[in-house]
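Worked example 3. Consider a protein that binds sulfopyruvate.
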Amino acid sequence: MSKKIYTCFSTDVIHDGHLNIINVAKQYGDVYVGVLSDSATVKYNKFPTIPFEERVEMIKALDGVKDVLVQDDVMYDKIVEQLHPDYIIHGDNWTKEPLKALRDNAEKLLSAYGGKVIDVPYTYNESVRRIDRKINEKLSMPEYRRKRLKQLIGIRPIVKAMEVHSGLTGLLVEKTVVEREGEFDQFDAMWLSSLCDSTAKGKPDIELVDMTSRFKTIDDIMDVTTKPIIFDGDTGGLIEHFVYMVHTLERMGVSAVIIEDKTGLKKNSLFGTEVEQTQDDIEHFCEKIRAGKRVQITDEFMIIARIESLILEKGMEDALTRAKAFVAAGADGIMIHSRKKDPAEILEFCDLFRKEDKTTPIVVVPSSFNVVTEEELAEHGVNIVIYANQLTRSAFPAMEQTAKDILKYHRAKEVDSRLMPIKDIITLIDEL
Ligand code: SPV
Ligand code: MG
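Given these inputs, the predicted complex is written out as structure tokens:
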């Protein structure tokens, strides 16, 4: 009986590298190719640009492929149980982090019955580079990027968004992939925080940084990334202005705007009742939502209503009444905020809201109630978790310490061991 050799493709385009793997694999026996499902792909790879069924057909049509299998998990356990391959073959990029966990997993499973892994030199020539670039460009186009947030809500147990305020922070959120205990993970989306966008400019978070400047930040980020963007629209401003904000964000390819039900001089919610903040009345805020929905062109863009009742200590009942009214006015999602350390009130809100509304996406920002896990939030019906400011808050102390130490020692040697090598910064930035 001929030997079975298995490989898994997580790609939208077949290039020289894949053909090379099949050619090498053929020499060992019958070639079986797995196609990674969407939900597994988005854990560590780019979002697929073609539907799963098309990827299956594309691989079935390849010369030398005996059969195509669906691979639902990034790891090989189920496939090995199902197919019992003699070999698993992969490009040798899986000998390095974070993909090394894949190789370790394959090796462990195969060694149980004498199977073997095969590493083939990873092909990265000009043609592969061009294909990578084309996929990236497609993913970054407004019509592809805009709809991706809704797509991700459909396939992720909880969508994870991370704060960005510059091209560099965008790149970090775009590219960071980790592996922990056999699970890969990456951020799904970017949060364009008003707090961090303002802070990066040394300005207070009071709707002072104007929209022209905020759109420029979006443009800087979009220019070097592909992931969907959720924009912190503060109060949305005057209704007459908010419609123009929606128009521009949608055209740019932003996926969602979140506006909060406050009025007058907005202050950051994390001040709570320590500063004067006024909540908008329900009908006026509904009017704003309706106006935004009226000018929206695509079905993909989302206007998410953020409720400040718990922040302003107006009570759960008020928060729920508002949620119901805002959804009825057309809001595509509800963000509920709290500055308590204990997540209890947030979870209570989610449970009560979900009793009546099973589908409207819920968004939370666990800056204060940071003990809560993504799994717990998902269990209570949360769809999007936003890490709203942690990159800024981690970068600033590191920069401050470096500044102090250079002043103290009159040279930079003492800080050098803490710094990222220039070479690594250069490789972070894509060459065109
Ligand atoms: C922001 O990040 O700007 C927010 C979230 O609006 S919070 O700071 O928690 O209010
Ligand atoms: Mg904000």
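Take a moment to read the result before moving on. The longest helix spans residues 390-409. Residues 193-195, 205, 232, 234 surround magnesium ion (ligand 2) (CB under 6 Å).
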